[in-house]
Amino acid sequence: RPLEMSAKKPVPFLRQVVSVTKKVHRDPRFDDLSGEYKPEIFMKTYSFLDSIKKQEKEMIQKQLKKCRNAEQKEKLQQLLNRMTQQEQAQKKQQKLRERELSLKRQRRELAKQGKKPFFLKKSEKRKLELAEKYAELKRSGKLESFLNKKRKRNAIKDKRRLPSQK
């Protein structure tokens, strides 16, 4: 039981303190014991989740077709949109990873041949990505609409920058 002390009496300078062992919490994200994060291995290990997500998406689509309630329908639509966006983001990430791996392989091949490795700048990488995006849009036939939207966006920005006329 803790010792009761009078509030009127001053606390002694060298008081008896019982030491309590503090629990050390371990965060696996930043701890070396958990190993190093490698996205390729992570994706291979948890690839079964993709099939589960696909099943859930199909189930939500079926529910959306059956649903009559407007609020419920809206919630299901938002959930479906979020799932598709996550899927697209994952595909984009995968493409980026594959591109990086192919560049790495090319560098290794050049190094084996005895040539100096060549590393692209961030701006050059961005230009290559943009060129690839335009090529993809051209293949799918959506390039015109994309460029029109971009023109409109830039026109709105330009209007904002101009001084207002009264």
Automatic annotation (TrEMBL):
<feature type="region of interest" description="Disordered">
    <location>
        <begin position="146"/>
        <end position="166"/>
    </location>
</feature>
<comment type="subunit">
    <text>Associates with 90S and pre-40S pre-ribosomal particles.</text>
</comment>
<keyword id="KW-0539">Nucleus</keyword>
<dbReference type="InterPro" id="IPR009292">
    <property type="entry name" value="RRP36"/>
</dbReference>
<keyword id="KW-0698">rRNA processing</keyword>
<dbReference type="Pfam" id="PF06102">
    <property type="entry name" value="RRP36"/>
</dbReference>
<feature type="coiled-coil region">
    <location>
        <begin position="53"/>
        <end position="140"/>
    </location>
</feature>
<comment type="function">
    <text>Component of the 90S pre-ribosome involved in the maturation of rRNAs. Required for early cleavages of the pre-RNAs in the 40S ribosomal subunit maturation pathway.</text>
</comment>
<keyword id="KW-0690">Ribosome biogenesis</keyword>
<keyword id="KW-0175">Coiled coil</keyword>
<comment type="similarity">
    <text>Belongs to the RRP36 family.</text>
</comment>
<dbReference type="GO" id="GO:0005730">
    <property type="term" value="C:nucleolus"/>
</dbReference>
<keyword id="KW-0687">Ribonucleoprotein</keyword>
<protein>
    <recommendedName>
        <fullName>rRNA biogenesis protein RRP36</fullName>
    </recommendedName>
</protein>
<feature type="compositionally biased region" description="Basic residues">
    <location>
        <begin position="148"/>
        <end position="166"/>
    </location>
</feature>
<dbReference type="GO" id="GO:0030686">
    <property type="term" value="C:90S preribosome"/>
</dbReference>
<dbReference type="GO" id="GO:0000462">
    <property type="term" value="P:maturation of SSU-rRNA from tricistronic rRNA transcript (SSU-rRNA, 5.8S rRNA, LSU-rRNA)"/>
</dbReference>
